[in-house]
Amino acid sequence: MTVEKRKRVSKKRKIAWRKHSKIKDVEDFLEEQGFEERIGNIIEQKSDKELFHLDTNTTEPAILSKKEKRKILTEKPLRSFSAFQQPVYLNLKSNTKRDIISKRLQKRLKMKAKETLKPSEVQSLKDTKIAMEKKKQQAMEDKYNADLWITEDSREPELQSEWVSNSTRQNILRGESKFRKILPKITRWKQTILPSVEPPHPGMSYNPSFEDHQALLKEIADKEQKIIKEEQHLNRVTNKMFRKITRERNQENWIEEMSQGLPHAQKEDNSDSEVDTSGPISVNPPVVNKKKDLKQRRKQKEQQKLRHALKLAKIERRKVADIYKLKQIKTKLVKNEEKLETLQQKRTVKKKEMIHKPKRVGPKKYEEPDLEFTEIKDLTGNLRTLKKEGNLLMDRLKSLQKRNIVEPTARRTKKKAKVKQFIKPGHKDDWKVTVAKAKLQPRPLLRNKKIISGDSF
């Protein structure tokens, strides 16, 4: 027996190592080890309990009681009907959608009975079983362990650290029961300091004093005078500002304005003055494209340099002059600071005043309601005989609008389209003359798109 001589190959490079080195035994070992890991642990390392299974279930048929046997017999068909065959229509196969679904359900039930379920269905059944067990273990008392009236923050202590920012804490607790949405600061501010129910004017009482009643009437009269004055001003600057002219005069003015610049208006002027167009039209002399020589270009550059030097010198002089203007600059800065301070004070005062006034919540501005009053002759001093004034619901609505809770609105009326009324042609009194006569008349002959009547011949 001759032993095959081993080839000697140079293994200088990586390619040679990969090509000529024998690693089959190592690959076989690793493949076997991977296969064992996929199946489970290595068989040598497994215990007897893991390898063998003790079957304790018996295969003997269960002994049924008399009652259970009768229950099974009730489900079977009667002996008197067992000889009859089933009707033909019961054996007919139907391919409706409902029957197909029912067949699928039956197939699934059979698969469940045989325990041949899909892996996903087996996993879902396991998950539901685990969830049900967890629910049973959880006691009902655990739901009411938390104190409803506790004011302390019940978040985790590690989140209460000074190193954790508020935004990070909110991001961690998002989606949990402990998450609390941070409301904006503006929701905690009071928008107005006006009371919900303002005390009415003392002159509105059912038995006011003479001075209070007169003061109320004076306030209402001043308000009305102010409104009348505004209306008069608007009338003066709009209607009374323009003079009234007749329709004919207005038409003449319009024609005169529209005909300005038209050729027929300038006929007389053109006939009198004749323009001589024989000479040159332009007043300026003709321009010659003459190039600058070297001397002119040199002088131009010198002028540019001189202008630049003068500009720099002017800037330097201004800098020197600014040093001597330090006092003026200081006084100017002080004046600006004083101006800003006074402006800030005015703004703070205005801001304080605005708290007592309603804000602009919607497109419509809030309007103060008219003051309710009773004339002297209607004052009785008794609530039974008193004449009612105002509306309680309207008063509450205006209060809500004034406190910026409700948006001020106005009643909008729906515009209805105007219906044009006319009499139908068949319902007119002269229908015999107009409708019936037109139908009885013969239609005229059309020749070369012209109506030929008796008059044309």
Provide an overview of this structure.
This protein has 16 helices and two strands. It has helices at residues 14-20, 24-39, 48-51, 66-75, 79-82, 88-91, 97-114, 119-137, 166-173, 210-238, 247-258, 267-272, 294-324, 326-355, 392-402, 431-440, and strands at 445-447, 450-452. Among the domains are: 14-51, no CATH class; 66-131, no CATH class; 167-256 and 363-407, no CATH class. It has 457 residues and is an all-alpha fold.
Brief synopsis:
Residues 446-457 have low confidence and may be disordered. By secondary structure, this protein is mostly helical. The chain has helices spanning 14-20, 24-39, 48-51, 66-75, 79-82, 88-91, 97-114, 119-137, 166-173, 210-238, 247-258, 267-272, 294-324, 326-355, 392-402, 431-440, and strands at residues 445-447, 450-452.
Q: Which structural class do the helices and strands define?
A: mainly alpha
Mean of pLDDT: 79
Low-confidence stretches: 446-457
Q: What gap, in angstroms, lies between the N and C termini?
A: 142 Å
Rg, rounded, reads: 54 Å
Estimate the helix proportion, in percent.
Answer: 40-55%
DSSP helix count? Answer: 16
Order of helices and strands: HHHHHHHHHHHHHHHHEE
How would you sum up the major sheet?
Answer: 2 strands, antiparallel
Shape type: extended
Percentage of β-strand residues: under 5%
Lateral arrangement of strands in the main beta sheet? 1-2
**Strands, total number:** 2
Coiled coil: 213-240
Main location: nucleus
Pfam families: Nop53 (PF07767)
Subcellular location: Nucleus, Nucleolus; Nucleus, Nucleoplasm
